[in-house]
Fold this sequence. Notes:
- It is built from three helices and three strands.
- It is an alpha+beta fold.
- Strand 2 and strand 3 form a beta hairpin.
Amino acid sequence: xxxxxxxxxxxxxxxxxxxxxxxxxxxxxxxxxxxxxxxxxxxxxxxxxxxxxxxxxxxxxxxxxxxxxxxxxxxxxxxxxxxx
Length: 84
């Protein structure tokens, strides 16, 4: 079980992270399994995942548009340019 300490008090549960990030619990668990988003701590007794919240002094990263979106936008722009 995780004991209360200054570090633990700043950790978010997976549910809190899901609400803030608008990602599903299932997606967050999958990202953990794939090694894309690792929790700061995992409780050995319960398996609960705890994540660090965003650093208040850090600017948020801007997520790039998905590659498929950019390619589709380019095709649509090319069609408009050709008058189709």
